[in-house]
Amino acid sequence: MKVTSISRKLLTRVLSFYFVLTFLVTCVQIGAEYINTKSHINSELLTLEKTFSSSLTRAVWELNTQQAIDIAEGLVAIPMIKGIKVTDENNQVITQLGENKTQDSDIKLEKEKHSYFNINSLSEGLFGYSFPLIFEFSGRTTKVGTVTLLSSNQVIFDRIEVGIYFLIGNAMVKTAALVFLFSIAFSQLLTNPLNELTEQINQFDIDDPEASKLHMVNYERNELSILQNAYNNLLSELTRYKDELATAQSKIIDSNNKLDEQNLMLEQEVAKKTSSLSTTMLKMEMQQRELLTQQGQLKAENSRRSQTEKTLTNTNNELKSSIHELKKAQERLLDAEKMAILGTLSAEVSHEINTPIGVSITSTSYLSDLLTKLNGDINDNKLSKRGLDEFRQNAAQSIDLLINNLNRASDLITSYKQVAVDQTSDKIRQINLAKYIDEIIQSLHPKLKKTNHTINIDCSDNIEIYCHAGAISQIFTNLIINSIIHGFEGINRGKINIAVAMQNSEIQITYEDDGLGMSQDALSSLFDPFFTTKSGKGGTGLGTHIIHSLVTDTLNGTVTASSDENKGLRYQIAFDDMR
């Protein structure tokens, strides 16, 4: 007769449900990864519009076809861009590069608020973004053309390929671990105890029921222990009935033996001696069986303890590996958060630089027109002193405007360049702390100029220290951005005070704002990873954790925070000069 294992049947059903659930969750995660990556690509296309629309507009306005083609070729060289199409104000194609197999009638456009268009979907796996080229001059705006940037689903798949492999591998590892743990649990809790019970029941001795009782090392009150007790009670009842039968037989023998008193006395004496000898032998046999049973139990206990020790060793190794992987994942997450802040500053600095460069281009164009007019007057012999004075005055104004805006762009690039290099390097170098803090704030100018907040700095000009400049930059960047995003939420004019002092070789920094502050419960978790008051609104909860890690680990210093609700937040940072 074929035997069906209860543990195997139960394990199969549980794991089947888990396999289906794991497959569905993995599919949902892959779909979410695809949608998120596509959203990032659309955002990057919008960033490219802000970066290149000004130069493309100028090239199309000046009918500089070659410059427009050069810019288009530069954009197509970006791996994300699969195609580009530039048209003039009459929808005549100026240049069309890359994958552009669909007709204009296949492109579905939706007009949105700011006079630009989004391409929702294209055939053959392409999607992209279309925006108009608007030229502004003397307060008037003119549409001079349209640019269409195209990307493809292949770009999305290339970006999420590694993530998909990671999700699938993660699901497979979890499933294998679960199968292994469930197999061990079912074997120890159900299969092995049942096999032990079956083996002891098969050794039942009808002549000695007491010695055939079940003896299991089981400290839990469960169904198996109830079955063991019921079986042992049955054997006890069988022994009692056997004793009662022996008593009845003894009474019958006594009644028969009364017929012959002499013979009875002799038989009784023999019976007593025989009974005494039999009892002694029976006790010795029972003691021997008990010793054998105890020996088997000790062997089983030693085997169980060896298996438990092996299981604990394997579990300890797995925990060490998991902790190591968790630390590596935390380090990667902190690095990603640092680079995300740097990327945001890069985009804002790039956008900020466009303004002085655009003004410089306009001034250069105006100066070129003045030179052309002056050359025409000279060739036609129409040059007058008044015309020459006007040219000198207008040219001087254009050159001043050009120099001021180019200097402004150069200062912004220089400040951001030094801060960006420091934030991606762990190099120890000498810095003037006051000047370096000014460079950090200058690199944050694109973000600060959108607000009415003010920053006051109290730092001596002669504080020269050796330290990780990148750590200093990251700390002040995170502190200022946290104040703007969290502390000054709903506040129009906030104040930030930064005080720096040096005692012997120790640097003491006090940073405080007059923002919303924090409750004592929230303050106790301020430096914990992933703690944020903007949960679900884009906050990662890593900003203050990065600050704590940089101060304590990189600078070997200390950082504390104090606050009351509606009374601002205050940081005390201290570290030693590393020279």
Précis, in short:
The chain has helices at 6-61, 65-76, 153-202, 223-257, 261-379, 385-423, 433-443, 445-448, 469-487, 520-524, 543-554; strands at residues 83-88, 93-98, 109-111, 117-119, 126-137, 140-152, 428-432, 454-459, 464-468, 495-503, 506-513, 558-563, 569-576. The chain has 579 residues and is α+β, with helices and mostly antiparallel strands. Strands 2-1-6-5-4-3 form a 6-stranded antiparallel sheet. A 5-stranded mixed sheet has the order 8-10-11-13-12, covered by helices on one side.
The SSE string, one letter per element, is HHEEEEEEHHHHEHHEEHEEHHEE
CATH superfamily of the domain at 6-172: PAS domain
- Do you know the CATH topology of the domain at 6-172? Beta-Lactamase
State mean pLDDT (0 to 100 scale).
Answer: 76
* Biggest sheet architecture: 6 strands, antiparallel
Q: How many individual β-strands?
A: 13
Query: At the first level of CATH, what is the class of the domain at 6-172?
Result: Alpha Beta
Helix content: 55-70%
Write down the Rg.
43 Å
For the terminal residues, how far apart are their CA atoms? Answer: 84 Å
Total of helices: 11
User: What overall geometry do the principal axes of the alpha carbons give?
Assistant: elongated
In percent terms, what proportion of residues is strand?
15-25%
Q: Structural class of the helix and strand makeup?
A: alpha+beta
